[in-house]
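[job 0417] fold request received: Glycosyltransferase RgtA/B/C/D-like domain-containing protein
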Amino acid sequence: MPRKSIPGQPLRSPRTIVRKSVVPHRPYDPNAVYPATRDELRPIALASVVLGFLALMVVASRGWMLLYGDAVAHLGIARRILDAHYPGIAQLGGVWLPLPHLLMLPFVQRMDWWQNGVAGAWPSLAAYAFANTGCYALARKLVPPPWAFAATAFFALNPNLMYLATTAMTEPLFLALMVWSIVVAYEAVEALHAAKIRSVKWRFIISGILTFAMVMTRYDGWILGAAIWLVLAIAWWRSSEATHKATQTSFIVMTLITVAGPILWFWYNAKYQGDWLDFMRGPYSAKAIEAKTTPPGSKPRRGMYNPGWAFIYFTRAAQVDAVAYELGFGVLATAIIGSYLAWKQRLSRVVLLLWVPLPFYIYSIAWGSVPLFVPQLYPGSYYNSRYGMELLPVFAIFTAIACAAVERKLRTQSKKKADIFFFLVLVAILLNMIAMMGSFGNLLQKVRGEDAKIPKWLSAPPLVFQEGVVNASTRISFEKTLAQEMLHIGPGDTIMFNTNDHIGAIQDAGIPLKRLISPLDSETFNKAAEAPAKYAKIIVAIDGDPVAKAVAAHPEGLTEIEVVCNSGQGCARFYRSDVYQGGVQ
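[job 0417] inference complete; emitting structure tokens
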């Protein structure tokens, strides 16, 4: 039967008819497990930005952004890349990995942002939002939407993470890269099984880039990146012959990107530090620092050469970092159960890579010269407690898997019981955040009066924040006093000062680093050490540092003009040169 034409339109042959394929919209199912959509991720990202800025407002208003000496040092490294006698990549140093400093570079050149620490907050806040969306994306592949939300809430509302997200510390960036690396590896393995060639190719390339970024952020990333590559290599090798051949080039590119990170860092250390393993055995390596700070004849710290104690210290730090009071034992046990369920239910076992930081830190504490102390264990002090934050994704994801299994069991008995259980979990997450900030103890103190004795643990602030406060008590006051004295130095005077230990004084005083002669600029410093009075107008020597040794060896032409002492930090002696002619010689 002939087709009728529509007035004003040409008659087309049946072969020319264009039919649009319509993808059926997946109806919302609160119990379905499938990848997160962009519509789901957007509110997570937006909420993360809001939470991050609220945390920034609180921390910045109280002057807490620079509690960690490491945060001050990270900002100093980023600053000196452009602000130095010899600017360039040589200023990155050979121990701390460079990506965090490169991300701070656009912000830290603004003097006031360097001084108040805001320059380090912008990359960390972005990483915080990136980590939260990654946590939801990963959880969404394993549990229904409500439990993915619960896992993300537990992760995002952690007060320690929220504090770190306002500083120049590297943990938020690494957590973001770690979570998304596992998300991409998960998707790559699924795509290999389904023979989705295009998806596999893209996931391989993205995985290589994320691994490169991890390798350039923290040394933990070297081990996790190698583990992810191994998992993908096995899955690729086991894929069908057609998939194997079609994705071979992408796999090779991923491999090259993955190994490029360590090779590049070896090259950098060899070229600029004179030893390709300077980060492991150089003067600023963990091994050298522990040897320097350990009193002669002292007993080995607990955990050294003992993987059992190393396990206890690391997991205890992880518990206290994640959960209030002594509830961390229960969360750790629940996460272990969730991991078992993930294995038993044959969920993609790629997610078990979240546990990789555990063996890494057991080795590091036992044999890698990495001490870790928490107040809950002997000797009751604070040091590197933030390392436990790397198990936060483990607690969030695997606890959600275990809780989702309980809820499914309850739902077979009563929908009401299941709903109540989920509600109680959300309440527990919120109460945990409040308790970790010491709010319950502070409230109880107000109710019972200032003279009432309240257990310290009830009002203790978050562990990572508390460590920063305790360890900064003498350093910050000393550096502020130094900064006040440095403000009296002429605006064009060259200063000889060791920035390795107290760059915070220079930062607080707002002095450009190019005015300094420091051991970090070894070429100039080595010359100046032979005649300090000739090379600098003002020399600031702190007891025992390289500048003090140079002054002791060559005091000619120097007049002592000021001494600043601080309990626990030693004394800083200010000298004026009587022969300095001006300019860097």
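[job 0417] notes: Residues 325 and 457 are 7 Å apart (CA to CA). The chain has a mean pLDDT of 92.
[job 0417] exit 0
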